């Protein structure tokens, strides 16, 4: 019996049958180690269609600004759609869309090609040209993918803003990217009810000074929305009438493909910039190898939202470049019932499921009786992303989902392998992950870098640590899918990732440890970034939102341990003079953060405190607050200006929030 105690020494080798038919082979590691750049050049040429071949693989002469596949030209939308149709695979399903209310749509690659061409023509008719930025604020519907690919086709740079973000968050991202067009929807469905987007766009654009000329709106639900004359247009009035002919232009390998904002250690989100050739190579190769993709027979499903990097790389660009058939689902896993995920797996005979540890833990909480009612025998690879997966959840995923052979049937002798994938918005694609069919997997560990990627764990001086030791995770060589910068902010790019160890080592911001076998275990962020349900949130961003409330003088935010969401936001605030808590202020402040940033940032607890723990030089000691939020011993408070304050805060935390 595997228990979590022996997780570190337990491994699950692939079955002989799986290994014999696996897409990835152990030779890939050897080839990549022998000649890393040659390996990536081969992968780029054999996986993508280039209009012009590249003449050089990597130019790192202006480090940390990388260029990959120099001189090469290609079109991401052609790679993701047209070429599959040209190769006679137009009838293959690209997308099985499952709406939350139960409506469905199926789009083949041939239909996707027409849709993308129409949208590309429509965007051009609205004045969008190569290099322009298009903000995408959409639910999980096929038009979102069509929009991204239509942008890529014409060389416009999309900036997808997660539909759960507030009007303010949308506005700051639209402003930073100087978007010309916003593509949105009236709304979507969430937990059985309409959930609106367009009103947030209206609010975001209500103040002058933005660059948005047009707003294109997909109709998804029946709610009324207001329209601004001359600015807002319905998708159904503009797109369907367009021609399905659109001749694409090839773009330089380094042409910007998209910007995606992510939280950093300061309040202002960073616009992570990705370009075309390298990003497409790494996402397509890792999507194929990490998930053992056999596109002619598989039905792949990634449950992420397209508003995050996982959706960009492993719903849009990787899978479609590989000609995969995939499922996309609009809604929440518990609507209309807690078996919805498994019902979808059963219905479409999903073969690969890529999801987040937080969702697995939620399903564990709901109980195995729910998945046990469904036939999940089609599943043959399971993937996780977003945070470290604890061994309990890993083993549950394997035993309850990966071994499911249908209701009342004996479990599978060889459960589906689990691939725990470590990567970031910045890395573009998988960096550390086992290869199914090759690696003997280990519960809770992401294990080894993927072929062609060189990572290390180093101490504060940049020296590699040994087995059994922990340190900071770094990437030791440039990689094709790496970010090319922070949009409009080269200094911040250098400072954030390349100042700690110079341009020799990319600083990922994660702590990690080698076990005695040399496998890598991720240990969470080492900076002021929290990970709530696999979503990155900055403590500073939430603190700024709190102090923007009239009642708050000062705020300190920490990530506390949470059994389901990994971490939870806990905020400590000092009130301004004249304000008193009437008993409802904590709830008001939680909702205030929700409105300012979005539901994912809503604090689990807000504690009103008389003072924050500060050193004599005025620095807030978040470490002590984190201990209190976790219900741990306060720790050494001797350097505080007022050492007694922590006792008071700990006492309040215990009485008010029970920890
Ligand atoms: O801390 C790591 C954690 O998520 C961070 C990246 O967040 P983001 O850019 O939003 O991308 C999430 C999806 C790729 C990392 O710095 N993280 C991501 N995957 C894992 C992980 N931590 C441990 N194990 C993982 N598999």
Number of helical segments with 4 or more residues: 20
Mean pLDDT: 95
Bound molecules: adenosine-5'-monophosphate-propyl ester
Q: For the largest sheet, list the strands in their spatial order.
A: 12-11-8-6-7-14-15-23
The unreliable regions are none
Oligomer: single chain
Number of strands: 30
Q: N-to-C terminal Cα separation, in Å?
A: 34 Å
Write the SSE topology.
Layout: H1 16-21, H2 27-34, H3 36-47, E1 56-62, E2 65-70, E3 73-74, H4 76-89, E4 93-98, E5 104-108, H5 109-125, E6 133-137, H6 142-154, E7 157-160, H7 167-177, E8 181-185, E9 187-190, E10 193-196, H8 198-204, E11 214-218, E12 232-234, H9 235-238, E13 251-252, E14 256-262, E15 270-275, H10 277-290, E16 300-302, H11 309-321, E17 326-329, H12 340-348, E18 352-355, H13 357-366, H14 369-372, E19 381-385, H15 391-402, E20 418-421, E21 455-458, E22 470-475, E23 485-486, H16 490-498, E24 506-514, E25 520-525, E26 529-532, E27 535-538, H17 539-547, E28 552-562, E29 566-575, H18 585-596, E30 605-608, H19 622-629, H20 645-657
Parallel strand pairs: 4-17, 6-7, 6-8, 7-14, 8-11, 11-12, 16-17, 16-18, 18-19, 19-20, 29-30
Antiparallel strand pairs: 1-2, 3-13, 4-5, 9-10, 14-15, 15-23, 21-22, 22-24, 24-25, 26-27, 28-29
Helix pairs in contact: 2-3, 3-10, 4-5, 4-6, 4-11, 5-6, 7-8, 10-11, 13-15, 19-20
The chain binds adenosine-5'-monophosphate-propyl ester.
Adenosine-5'-monophosphate-propyl ester binds next to helix 11, strand 20, strand 24 and strand 25.
